[in-house]
Amino acid sequence: MNTHSHNHDTESIGDRRLGFAIAINMLLTLAQVVGGILSGSLSLIADALHNFSDAASLLIAWVARKIGRQPADHFRTFGYKRAEIIATLINLVTLVLIGLYLIYEALWRIYEPQIIEGWMVVIVASIALVIDLATAFLTFTMSKHSMNIRAAFLHNVSDALASAGVIVAGTLILLYEWYWSDTLITLLIAAYVLYQAATMLPKTIHILMQGTPEGIVIDDVITAMQQVTNVINVHHVHIWQLDEHQNALEAHVLLSDYSQLDKVKGELKTALAQKFSIGHSTLEFEIKECKYDQC
């Protein structure tokens, strides 16, 4: 099997996993709403809305994967891979909003304590936890290699923690009437959600702002390029990320011998790829007599 076929099979498996995860989360949302209505629990309905946001985040990630595979065209000459970065940003922003909302709800309950009503809430929350863990299992492997899936995965982890918190708090309230436990666990969950979002947001924004890839120093790149024979000077250097896996560069290169252009170009592209993982480079070559600061 060639590499293209292997990648296609892997992507198909990933799509099926995401599709299944979306389906079970939608069913879970419906079950939580029904359970909330039957038990009269507003908190369970609120958790259902939280779980619906997880299903939505998975759907956004799935759609972004589909768009990202579209080949480059005259309208998007670099292709559509950044759709996944945009999806990551959307999911992370909603994750921050959920974290802030949880803090608001937790603080509000200090003034207006709410009782978790009966075993039905705990039972439904337990079912939700099982579904959340199953979804996490389905997306964990993919989350290692994609910021897009990782953001959706964090949505799911936050909901799993919320479900676990409902179970723990519900048990403590039913056994000991420790109503404060619900507020405490909610605040801990919110802190975790905001921390996870904070770790990914800067990198996501950095890519969208076309920042220099992490671990690459422009001066080091220029030095390495200028060590190639017949290269006098490298200037007007720009380095950015097309997506989280592909680095790109454009630069002007001043040569001492223009007849060696093809050889120099090959050596430069090899050095960029091997030393800095820059697979896409656009190089503009100039002859020695050209004043590079005027070109």
Automatic annotation (TrEMBL):
This is Cation transporter. Keywords: Ion transport, Membrane, Transmembrane, Transmembrane helix, Transport, Zinc, Zinc transport. Residues 213-284 form the Cation efflux protein cytoplasmic domain. The chain crosses the membrane at residues 20-38, 85-104, 116-140, 160-178, 184-201. GO terms for molecular function: zinc ion transmembrane transporter activity. It is found in: Membrane. It holds the Pfam family ZT_dimer.
